[in-house]
Task: inverse folding
């Protein structure tokens, strides 16, 4: 790839800024362009290689003010009408997107399937920009017929951007999951499972709709997938469960109460560690039942882990030689591993940035 520049849309936000810092540290000669809606806004960190530009995902053509087309776009802010997505596709610019909840994710994939792609599009909207799904895929091999259970511990004291709790608007909407017995509809914050996280905190985790459910079962090794979440306040977790089960949450649905709903859990703090637990159950080469468990902790929190999830996808594209680009098409986070970035290289990428990974 021509490594002249990378455009990070939402580059002034909590996650976008960290994506820029990570890529700048790894590629000092790379020009980083931070896109946002406000003209003339100063870059959140200083460097002669860091610039800003106007990119508004609500505009008909969000890339209209980009003079020199970047080699890669990373989108870290909501693109609800797919305007940035399609603007990049029209210009044949590779794009990584980390912003879509499941229904919007499906909408975007449907649109991509109806147009000709002349560059890769990485739809990395799973948990922490696909980090959970990526490590589930890595550790599921060489098992087969794997049941993948992903669990996340969400810290209420962690840093967060305003889009981080968009899922709160979908807490009463059922969604499909693939289980060993087949596909069925489930509700958010249902079917609790008790989990102990890497920090020793044990609590009940509840279902949440994420694109991981859909992308993981595309892999050859994984037959079913589920995602569950808990907050590091048991009182907060139980309060949300009660509001949903009682019907109160549905009563405060709609645009009028959006601020109230998001305000319940969007009170970002100064930072806290983020923990993920992955349990994989499948069959080994002899047909015997086998189980693997993976623990992931980022001491710098969920926004940092999300930024790493986006940056590791960018890393692969930036490593590709110009004469051997990634083929045009739709890619998902767990498609990342290949001969250039294998299991060891991906793990090393995260560990170099302070993430603690263990398995048993």
Result:
């Amino acid at each position: 790839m021509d490594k002249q520049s990378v455009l990070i849309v939402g580059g002034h936000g909590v996650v976008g800024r960290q994506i820029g810092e990570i890529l700048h540290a790894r590629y000092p000669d790379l020009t980083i362009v931070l896109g946002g809606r406000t003209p003339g806004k100063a870059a959140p960190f200083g460097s002669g290689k860091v610039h800003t530009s106007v990119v508004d995902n609500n505009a008909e053509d969000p890339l209209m003010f980009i003079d020199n087309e970047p080699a890669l776009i990373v989108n870290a802010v909501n693109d609800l009408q797919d305007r940035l997505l399609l603007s990049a596709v029209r210009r044949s610019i590779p794009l990584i997107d980390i912003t879509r909840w499941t229904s919007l994710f499906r909408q975007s994939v449907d649109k991509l399937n109806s147009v000709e792609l002349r560059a890769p599009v990485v739809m990395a909207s799973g948990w922490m920009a696909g980090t959970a799904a990526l490590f589930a895929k890595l550790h599921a091999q060489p098992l087969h017929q794997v049941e993948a259970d992903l669990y996340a511990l969400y810290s209420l004291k962690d840093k967060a951007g305003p889009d981080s709790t968009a899922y709160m608007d979908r807490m009463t909407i059922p969604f499909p999951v693939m289980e060993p017995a087949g596909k069925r509809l489930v509700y958010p914050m249902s079917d609790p499972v008790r989990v102990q996280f890497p920090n020793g905190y044990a609590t009940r985790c509840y279902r949440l709709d994420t694109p991981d459910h859909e992308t993981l079962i595309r892999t050859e090794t994984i037959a079913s997938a589920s995602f569950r979440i808990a907050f590091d306040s048991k009182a907060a977790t139980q309060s949300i469960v009660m509001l949903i089960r009682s019907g109160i949450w549905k009563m405060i649905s709609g645009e009028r109460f959006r601020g109230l709903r998001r305000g319940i859990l969007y009170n970002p703090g100064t930072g806290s560690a983020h923990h993920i637990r992955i349990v994989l159950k499948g069959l080994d080469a002899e047909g015997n039942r086998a189980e693997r468990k993976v623990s992931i902790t980022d001491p710098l929190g969920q926004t940092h882990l999300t930024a790493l999830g986006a940056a590791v996808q960018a890393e692969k594209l930036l490593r590709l030689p110009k004469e051997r680009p990634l083929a045009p098409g739709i890619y998902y986070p767990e498609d990342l591993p290949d001969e250039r970035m294998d299991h060891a290289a991906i793990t090393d990428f995260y560990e170099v940035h302070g993430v603690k990974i263990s398995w048993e």
About this structure: The chain has a mean pLDDT of 91. The chain is about 30% helix and 25% strand.
